[in-house]
Amino acid sequence: MIYPHQCPGCRVLVQDHLHLCPECWREAHFISGCICPKCGVQMLGDHNDAHILCDDCLNTRRPWTRGRAVFLYNAKARSMILALKRKDRHDLVAPFSHWMLRRGAEIFPPAPLLIPIPLHWQRQWRRRFNQSALIAQKMARMAGIDCCLDGLKKCRRTLELKDHTAAERRKLLHASMAVNPARAGCVSGREVVLVDDVFTSGATFSEAARACLEAGAKTVSVMALARAAKPA
Ligand SMILES: [Zn+2]
Ligand SMILES: [Zn+2]
Questions:
Q1: Closest ligand to 83 CA?
Q2: N or C terminus: which one in the chain shows less Cβ crowding within 10 Å?
Q3: Ligand nearest 39 Cα, by number?
């Protein structure tokens, strides 16, 4: 077989499973050019100043140092992420991880510790896996870097956040996450990179970063697959 792989976006046969077919490539909006150093969103302009933040990050306290995201959370990104989450398309983990490593390379510290954003155990039990943990694990294997899959844990269940404003999300998530006491020694003194599938308001990353910094992490950066537009 000459084309043994499927496009991660549409399953048409392609030569390389880590890349989208030309059609999907046009639909996915990979973030490039001028980006916000904190959240990785694409900004207008052509400056290359690593200190100019987007409006969102200017108006919201972000307890982490730097952040990146692979693509915008548009219809194409949503369908690919839902295919992994709901249709068990585990073949998507490799391309997602490859893209995140490439996008994150410029912000990764020399010896990062990857920690995925956890799901509450009930949600994970229903879904059977945590998509962010699968991605973090694959990134660690591909790049030969450290990963602590259960570094963070959800202390309580939080409601689905998608219908809430940024301020409401922060309130709902307050004190909802902690460093796993059994892993406190792994986090202390490390340069943590948090891994999640979708960055919406940043409230989840803020809560996770706070927990890591309280547990003695030296720095925290964040890495998302998709960056959603600012919620209402
Ligand atoms: Zn495709
Ligand atoms: Zn920003």
A1: 1
A2: N
A3: 2
CA dihedral 101, 107, 112, 116 (to 10 degrees): -60
Quick one: which ligand is closest to 56's CA?
A: 2
Q: Ligand 1 centroid to 81 CA: how many Å?
A: 14
Q: Give me ligand 2 centre to Cα 86, in Å.
A: 29
**Which residues, chain by chain, have CB under 5 Å from ion ligand 1?**
7, 9-10, 21, 24
pLDDT tens readout for residues 95-118: 999 999 999 999 999 999 999 999
Confidence tier at 159 by pLDDT (50, 70, 90)? low
State the distance from the centre of ligand 2 to the C-alpha of 91, rounded, in angstroms: 30
pLDDT at 28 over 90: yes
pLDDT of residue 3: 60
Counting ligands in written order, the one closest to the CA of 40 is 2
pLDDT for res 232: 38
Calculate the alpha carbon distances from 16 to 5, 103, 216 in Å. Answer: 6, 19, 41
The enclosing H or E element of 113 equals: strand 112-116
d(C-alpha 187, C-alpha 159), whole Å: 27
pLDDT for residue 157: 72
DSSP-assigned letters across all residues of 165-201: -HHHHHHHHTT-EEE-GGGHHHHTT-EEEEEEEEESS
Domains of the chain, residue spans: 5-227
Two tokens, residue 163: 């219908």
Which helix (H) or strand (E) covers residue 76, if one does?
helix 75-87
